[in-house]
Amino acid sequence: MSIRCASKLLHRRASAFTAITAGAAVLVALVPGAASACGGASGSPASSTQTSVNKAYTFLDQSTDKYGNGTTLRLPQSFTGGYLGSLNFVSSFVYDDALTIMAYLQRATASDLAHAKVLGNSLIYAQQHDVTPDGRLRASYQPD
Fold first, then answer.
1. Which H or E run contains 58?
2. pLDDT band at residue 18, thresholds of 50, 70 and 90?
3. Are 66 and 143 in contact (CB under 8 A)?
4. What is the mean pLDDT of residues 33-50?
5. What is the spatial distance between Cα 28 and Cα 119, in angstroms, rounded to a whole number?
6. What Rg do the C-alpha atoms of the chain give, in angstroms?
7. How far apart (Å, rounded) are the C-alpha atoms in residues 35 and 41?
8. In 10 A of CB 22, how many CB atoms?
9. How far apart are CA 112 and CA 115, in angstroms?
10. Residue 31 pLDDT > 70, yes or no?
11. Mean per-residue pLDDT for 31-52?
């Protein structure tokens, strides 16, 4: 497989995670109070939207906790599968991490805030331990 083809696969996988994460952040920003405004009846648009938001957070939790839990420093893997996945090539893109942190802060349950703090601390750790000590963050990191 050519590098160009592998790059396209990587971009598609990363884009999928970014889209899901961004979708969760946007939905959460738009949904507060929607269920009560529409009566919250089962099968209502608000109920369906809340179900989607809940599934998005479940996905974020699973991605974030894949390589550790509690206060263990870690980042969510941005993509899985495909050719690069078969080579065990994994990465956590800082853009995806930022969207995940924003989604957690928006909903702000105790668990969400703990996840956001761990992700933030992981990025701070990466910044403080970069081989070029100028405060930079790289585009991506190994998630574990």
1. helix 45-64
2. low
3. yes
4. 61
5. 19
6. 17
7. 8
8. 17
9. 5
10. no
11. 63
Instruction: Measure Cα distances from 136 to 72, 79, 99, 126 in Å.
Output: 22, 23, 18, 9
Instruction: In whole angstroms, give the CA distance from residue 28 to residue 54.
Output: 9
Question: Is 114 a residue whose pLDDT tops 70?
Answer: yes
- Nearest CA to 115 out of 65, 59, 79 is that of 65
Q: Which amino acid is at 63?
A: S
Cα dist. 54→35, 36, 75, 135 in Å? 13, 16, 20, 35
Specify the pLDDT at position 34.
Answer: 40
CA atoms lying within 13 Å on the CB side of residue 78: 26
pLDDT of residue 17: 53
Residue 108: closest CA among 53, 28, 23? 28
Largest CA distance in the chain: 55
pLDDT higher than 90, residue 61: yes
Angle at which helix 94-107 crosses helix 110-128, to 10 degrees, equals 150
In the numeric block, which tokens belong to residue 82? 């495909």
